[in-house]
Amino acid sequence: QVQLVESGGGLVQPGGSLRLSCTASGFTMDDNDIGWFRQAPGKEREAVSCIGSRMRDGLTLYAGSVKGRFTISRDNAKNTVYLQMNSLKPEDTAVYYCASDCSDYASQWGQGTQVTVSS
Fold it and tell me: CA–CA separation, 68 vs 72, rounded Å?
């Protein structure tokens, strides 16, 4: 059974950092493009970052709003993808999801982890 589980969310002050983790069971993450998405209250879900499969040499992509502040990476030994988030802003507040693809049509999604940036 394929499952994605996110962790690492929480409450952080503006300018702070968090690292989100997405751990998979039932499939090998390195064989898939993996995406991070977020959805803020009252807003549509948006793509945040993507890391390509090993066939794509782990190519990374970022939304313009997070470029330079967020870093996506992969630990194959742990079958986990991370999203390091630095210089967090209140507008980064959202539920963050990982998915088994970099598009909205991903077949597998995690349950989400809440990130709240507030003083």
Answer: 11
Tokens of 38: 């977020």
Beta-ladder partners of 20: 83
| Token reading at 22 | 């997405």
pLDDT, tens digit, for every residue of 34-66? 999 999 999 999 999 999 998 888 899 999 999
Closest CA to 29 of 87, 90, 75, 94: 75
SS3 36: strand
Give the integer Cα–Cα distance in Å for 68 and 107: 29
Token pair, residue 39, equals 């959805």
Question: Could you tell me if residue 104 is left (phi over 0), alpha (psi between -120 and 50 degrees) or otherwise beta?
Answer: alpha
- SS3 of the chain: helix, strand, coil, percent, to 5: 10, 45, 45
